[in-house]
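User: I'm new to structure prediction. If I give you an amino acid sequence, what do you actually give back? Let's try with this one:
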Amino acid sequence: MARMTESNPRVDPPMAADETATLSAFLDYHRATLALKCEGLTDDQLRLRSVPPSALSLLGLVRHMAEVERYWFRAILCGEELTGGIYWTEADPDGDFDNVDTADVAADFAAWRSEVEAARTAAAGLPLDTVAKRPRRGEEVTLRWILAHMVEEYARHNGHADLLRELIDGATGE
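Assistant: Good question. You get back a string of structure tokens that encode the predicted 3D arrangement of the chain. For your 174 residues, that looks like this:
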């Protein structure tokens, strides 16, 4: 079982827990994995793009996940009326990935951590069957679906992060 340490902030999800604890633990594991993939790198390394013409970078992934956390937990689950994104605009819908060259890395990581905490607070104590609506589509979505989707979103992007980290300094691992 993985233990949280300074060099490994991840804790393995419990193998016998209720559904809420299991989903939440898997989500936290994947959040910690993204942080681990970025650990020990310089700002320039975090900004390094994968393969042209892709705009994919570790910093872009962190910024993107801040946006995703904000959208699903604050806008959808809590119904907050958020105008625009943290990094994107109507004119620049991919700003989270595209605009990393001069981005403030510390501020971007702080924004991501803040959105993660806001997400945890939003979901705390709610039943998994809590229903929210996607305002533009009118579709109902449950907290269960949001948590499962967030695990999927992080898992997919952590695969990207693993490849980016290997490109940057050869580091590999789960």
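You can read the tokens as a compact description of the fold. Here is one thing that stands out. The first helix runs from residue 19 to 38.
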